[in-house]
From TrEMBL, chain A:
It comes from Paenibacillus mellifer. GO terms for molecular function: 4 iron, 4 sulfur cluster binding; metal ion binding. This is LutB/LldF family L-lactate oxidation iron-sulfur protein. The keyword Electron transport applies. Signal peptide: none annotated. Pfam families: Fer4_8, LUD_dom, LutB_C. It comes from the Bacteria. Residues 297-328 form the 4Fe-4S ferredoxin-type domain. Keywords: 4Fe-4S, Electron transport, Iron, Iron-sulfur, Metal-binding, Repeat, Transport.
Length: 506, 244
């Protein structure tokens, strides 16, 4: 497997990808901001959303059990899968029993986790993605690079080429023509498919209903036309009631695309009723763990299960905006992916260094509609990796050395003095640009400043005198002057403990 | 018999699933370091914030907001004074768009419209959805130029139509045709999403239809270079007729 850095380099050298990802994420981000402002009291809604998700996850055994029982009462067949492989096995069994030739799928991140398409193809079943973006990347043989806009990295010429191959004729790179071709092509697939597969945005415990949010209508198609429906659902997708759905329906579309509501929001409660003229005759719901329950009871990561998969953290993330989704190397990308991918995988040895590809600026937390502290979680992941001995050996040695030097004032100041002498070899115009030692990584893209000839601590006594003298002149207003004087007085009154390591003299 | 074998298989799967379900719940409780929860926990944060539940617009404001939102999403809104005016409107569109196949739900409001005879007179083929097994309903819907439904509710704040499935109200009617017409008697137009959603809680599981669909404009996608495309799978033209 390639490293995060290699994948990021690949992305950074793809000019179109960078521009497209940047354009789209900025548009989505601005749309979200406007939608949140228009709605008003956004912080209150975020908090509400967070509380509902916290409550549900804290009582997940009750709600999930309730959902399963109610869904069965509706006539659905409910299955539980601990691992992705188990979920795939169940779906393949259903397909085999139904002697299915064709499966149509609407967008589902869980099914991406399972690589169900490949498994179906291997079993001789045609699997067709029907979300326009998913269909495009399926034809390209790629994985989605954004939760909401899967083909964010493809331009219309590439798309026209892919679709032309499918059409057997040259299609012009015009959106309406391309989309029109896909409509006709997939319409036929919907009508001939034996099984429709969906994901699940929310599952309502009290009535055993699943809720799907979408704009194209393909999720409605796959849950209306084929005779059998299979729904994949992460075990944490639960909310207690339809009333709670109002909060999620307020947060999710606004955070994802800036819409007041997606074009379609569908609540599906069991298979078709006996007298109904359409809808699936048989409905299977496969509930997946695949590492999710690992987060329960873990104070650092339990909130990860609150995620509603809106993609707002991707759009807010300065790193994602530069490197795009594929550089993350997993099913989920962006800040949520950087945390979720390793968190779902218990084996720390298999973690790559994606958690390090973040500046920890916290924009993801600000954007998150349910306030998941992703930037904190990135730090926890880094710590766990190092604690379990999978850190960078050189870095560990360096940190130990740094601790040894800086925890003792004498050693620290001796090191600084030595540094000031030794740096003369490499300093040019007050900067160090040589890529040597610990500066190798840093100086690849920038230059390091040199150590000052006279350290701040040596200058402090002089500076303090100057400051005292200037207070009376520069601070205007009696009250402000009083405050400054009081502060200075207080500082002067506090004895300086020369042993604390803050002094400079040896 | 093949069917029996299949049902036996389903039963085996259910037994497996129930066993697995117990393992799942035990694991969750174990991870949360407590015993299994068997009763519904108190849920103090249920639903929207309190202040929000007090929002209720006047009919005029509901009409205006619905129109703004639905139009902004690319839908069309008309406000015929009565069913007769709605019929005239639909007839005019049928002529303008050259509609030849029309499918409608079977409900009293639409029957009262008297569209069937009027459209048939223009040479169009009108089908009325019902649960009769003999008809290939999905094929009827797929070939239809117009699908005509009565909305069960409409929501002003989000600009949404709400349609619920039933034997005489197929889900396909609002999905497969090229153009969708939804008749909305104005008394069904409410302010907030929550007003509709809470009726599903109140009704309870057994009262819910298989499909409840909120429709907020024409089918759309921006998956090709952010370029907005209308009608990618569902109807590309959607009319909401607020009647009354």
């Amino acid at each position: 497997m390639s490293s995060v850095k290699e994948r990021a380099d690949l992305a950074l050298n793809n000019d179109f990808l960078r521009k497209a990802v940047r354009f789209t994420t900025e548009r989505l981000r601005d749309g979200k901001r406007k939608a949140a402002d228009d709605h008003g009291n956004w912080e209150e809604w975020r908090e509400r959303g967070r509380q509902i998700r916290l409550h549900t996850i804290a009582h997940l055994d009750y709600y999930l059990d309730r959902f399963a029982e109610q869904a069965r009462a509706n006539g659905a067949h409910v299955h539980f899968a601990s691992t992705g492989a188990e979920a795939v096995q169940i779906a393949l069994e259903v397909a085999a029993r139904k002697e299915a030739h064709t499966v149509v799928k609407s967008k589902s991140m869980v099914s991406e986790e399972l690589h169900i398409n490949r498994a179906l193809e291997e079993a001789g079943v045609e699997a067709v993605e029907t979300d326009l973006g998913e269909y495009i990347i399926q034809l390209a043989g790629e994985a989605p690079s954004h939760i909401i806009i899967p083909a964010i990295h493809k331009n219309r010429y590439q798309i026209a080429q892919l679709l032309s191959r499918e059409a057997g004729e040259e299609l012009p790179p015009e959106t309406s023509v391309l989309a029109g071709f896909v409509r006709r092509k997939l319409r036929a697939k919907f009508l001939e498919a034996d099984i429709g597969m969906t994901g699940c945005n929310f599952a309502i415990a009290e009535t055993g209903s699943i809720v799907l949010f979408e704009n194209e209508g393909n999720a409605r198609m796959v849950s209306t036309v084929p005779k059998t429906q299979i729904t994949f659902m992460g075990m944490e997708r639960i909310i207690p009631s339809w009333s709670d759905l109002e909060v999620m329906a307020t947060l999710l579309p606004r955070s994802a695309t800036g819409q007041k509501l997606t074009v379609y929001m569908s609540g599906i409660t069991g298979p078709r009723r006996t007298a109904d003229g359409d809808g699936p005759e048989e409905m299977h719901i496969i509930i997946l763990d695949n590492g999710r329950s690992e987060q329960l009871g873990d104070p650092e990561f339990q909130e990860l299960l609150n995620c509603i998969r809106c993609g707002a953290c991707l759009n807010a993330c300065p790193v994602y905006r530069h490197i795009g989704g594929h550089a993350y190397g997993g099913t989920y990308s962006g800040p949520i992916g950087a945390v979720l991918t390793p968190a779902l995988n218990k084996n720390v040895a298999e973690w790559d260094d994606i958690a390090s590809a973040s500046s920890l600026c916290g924009a993801c937390y600000e954007a998150c509609p349910v306030k998941i502290p992703l930037h904190d979680m990135l730090v926890y992941l880094r710590r766990r990796k190092v604690e379990q001995g999978y850190g960078n050996k050189l870095e560990t040695a360096g940190m130990k050395g740094f601790a040894a030097v800086t925890s003792n004032s004498k050693r620290f100041h001796r090191a600084l003095k030595a540094g000031r002498v030794l740096q003369r070899v490499v300093v040019r115009n007050g900067e160090i640009s040589a890529r040597i030692g610990p500066l190798k990584g840093w100086n690849r893209y920038r230059v390091a400043p040199s150590l000052a000839n006279q350290p701040f601590r040596e200058r402090w006594d002089t500076l303090q005198h100057e400051l005292r003298a200037s207070v009376a002149q520069t601070v205007t207003g009696a009250a402000a002057q009083e405050r400054m004087k009081a502060a200075l007085h207080k500082r002067a009154a506090r004895p300086i403990d020369r042993k604390e390591g803050h002094s400079y003299d040896e | 018999m093949m069917n029996n074998e299949y049902n036996d298989w389903l039963k085996t799967k259910e037994a497996e699933a129930r066993k697995k379900q117990e393992q799942f719940m035990d694991r969750i409780a174990g991870k949360l370091k407590r015993s299994r929860l068997r009763e519904a926990p108190e849920h103090p944060f249920r639903g929207a914030p309190m202040y929000w539940r007090e929002l209720e617009w006047s009919l005029e404001e509901r009409l205006a907001r619905f129109e703004d939102n639905f139009t902004a999403a690319g839908g069309h809104v008309a406000r015929p004074a009565d069913l007769e005016a709605a019929k005239t409107y639909i007839m005019a569109k049928a002529q303008a768009l050259g509609a030849r196949y029309i499918l409608r739900q079977d409900d009293p409001t639409l029957a009262e419209l008297g569209l069937d005879e009027a459209l048939a007179a223009t040479g169009a083929k009108v089908s009325v959805w019902n649960g009769h097994r003999s008809e290939a309903w999905i094929a009827r819907a797929a070939e239809a130029d117009f699908g005509i439904v009565t909305a069960d509710h409409a929501v002003a704040y989000t600009g949404s139509l709400v349609v619920q499935s039933a034997a005489e109200k197929g889900r396909s009617v609002s999905l497969l045709p090229t153009t969708l017409f939804a008749i909305v008697p104005v008394e069904r137009l409410i302010t907030r999403l929550g007003e509709v959603l809470q009726t599903f809680d109140a009704a309870g599981r057994e009262a819910l239809p298989a499909g409840i669909h909120f429709i907020s404009g024409p089918s759309r996608s921006a998956d090709i270079e952010n370029d907005l495309t209308i009608g990618v799978h569902g109807p590309g033209i959607v009319f909401a007729l607020l009647v009354g």
